[in-house]
User: What shape does this take?
Amino acid sequence: MTELVRTARERGITTLTLDAPARRNALSAALADALAEALARCGGDRGTRAVVLTHAGNTFCAGADLRDPPRPEALVELMRGIVELPVPVVARVDGHVRAGGLGLLGACDIAVASTAATFAFTEVRIGLAPAVISLPLLPRADPRALARHCLTGERLDAAEAVRAGLLTAAGADVDEVLAPVLDGLRRASPQGLAETKRLLTATVLQTFDRDADALTALSARLFASPQAREGATAFLERRDPTWVV
Assistant: This one.
């Protein structure tokens, strides 16, 4: 069976690569579980100074796998696991990000991308809402930008994603953008990183504590709704859903 998340280590940096490119790294139940397990191993590894989360293929993550989505609770646990990991997590994006993939970006401490990357909150177009993924995003992203992009489902480029607070930085070569970040993390003390991350994520974790149960219930209700079934069917059949006017 193909490994869904590949692990590599170099000079204190553990790289986790989402490796389901045929499915555009969509978050199936199996992929979400594999990523959660890999992150947990990183958290217990004293040799890991930071984690880089990246991808195989031209898509970082296409959101939930509509054929086999993870439970909303599992997605909440996955994102919270990134936020609570005692080492920084850096997203390296050299492709496209949609829907639930933006929740992974929001959970990461730093997110860098190539200027070829594109982003979109597509939930509204298939009868859903960015419910659980809003947990890490609302405390970190620009409210006006989120309103526009979550309500319209428009595609945005890397420069707009930086302005909106979805990305930290972007450039023509993502690895050139990433290099000084990793150099800085390697020069930082493990204690300094852990305690600084704790300070920076406190508000995000308060949002999880306050809203996770309600948003999990909302996500489950929407996924089971007639409009979501029509939206998913239309997406898989590559047609407009019936509500398009």
